[in-house]
Amino acid sequence: MNNINKLVLAIGFALTTFPTLAAGFQCKDHVALGVPGQSSQLLCREGYAAGYNYDTKVSDWVSYRMTAASAQGQVPRKDAFAEDKEVPVQYRATLADYKGSGFDRGHQAPAADMRTSATTMKQSFLLTNMTPQLPALNQGAWRILEEKTRQWAIAYENIQVITGPIFTNSDGAIGNGVTVPHAYYMVVMDVANQEAIAFILPQENVSASRLADYIVTVDAVEEQTGLDFFTALPDEPEEAMESQLMTMWDNYSPQR
């Protein structure tokens, strides 16, 4: 067997044996700190990675690296919600599922964070990047939290953002089985300083002025979701970071 064939076999074995390594090859920086959990289908986009769940028809997590440059992208928003054709048809969320439901198609990786290219903008509107979200939350406190995340990206220059639903007490489903979360989480890590902040917001009209009241530890998010964040880090600094309420909120507070 020649050296090239040996190399191909070695890479194939590594990708088959170690799912996190495989994801790292496919999804680049978006899961460089670890895949949060093994979902039904891993979706690698230019601007984010997602772990899509066939049972809920919602992604368990969406993860992306945001820099100061990407946070200030100039590509204009273009609303073009679409089914994700990478997902088998029987497991897809559809536009009809949301129609007349009373819920917004709430972005997990927001369009405003995906303004670096026409491709990142277009992919942000795939329904695998959406959850059923009450309009008051989607257009209110959650939007303000997304704005603050971009402030952190500009301030710290390199952050990891992970968002997703919490289904512990699901509020039922819309359409053909798209599950409605009872809450949402967001985890933001300052990569250089290895500090992280996390939020859990209930599915209700949260006051944007009270966002600081919803700060939790990363450990608390893991307990409610069953996910495991930042597994690529050494255990000791990972555990220390995830168990503490960090001070990122004290800097760059939203001007509201």
> Roughly how many Å is the radius of gyration?
18 Å
What overall form do the CA principal axes indicate? globular
Q: Going across the major beta sheet, what is the strand order?
A: 1-2-3-6-9-10-11
- Average pLDDT value? 87
Helix segment tally: 8
- Give the termini separation: 66 Å
Helix content: 25-40%
Run of helices and strands: HHEEEHEHEHHEEEEEEHH
What percent of residues are in strands? 15-25%
Give the biggest sheet: 7 strands, antiparallel
The chain-level structural class is alpha+beta
How many beta-strand elements?
11
Q: Point out poorly predicted stretches.
A: 3-25, 252-256
Kindly summarize this structure in a few lines.
The chain has 256 residues and is an alpha+beta fold.
Describe this structure in words.
It is a single chain. The chain has 256 residues and is α+β, with helices and mostly antiparallel strands. It has helices spanning 3-17, 19-27, 95-98, 118-123, 135-138, 141-156, 218-225, 235-243, and strands at residues 41-44, 49-53, 58-67, 104-107, 130-133, 158-166, 173-174, 178-179, 183-190, 195-202, 215-216. The strands form three sheets. It has a seven-stranded antiparallel sheet with strand order 1-2-3-6-9-10-11, sandwiched between helices. Helix 1 packs across helix 2. The longest helix is centred in the middle third of the chain and has 16 residues, at 141-156. It starts with a helix and ends in a 13-residue tail after the last helix. The relative contact order is 0.14. Residues 3-25 and 252-256 have low confidence and may be disordered.
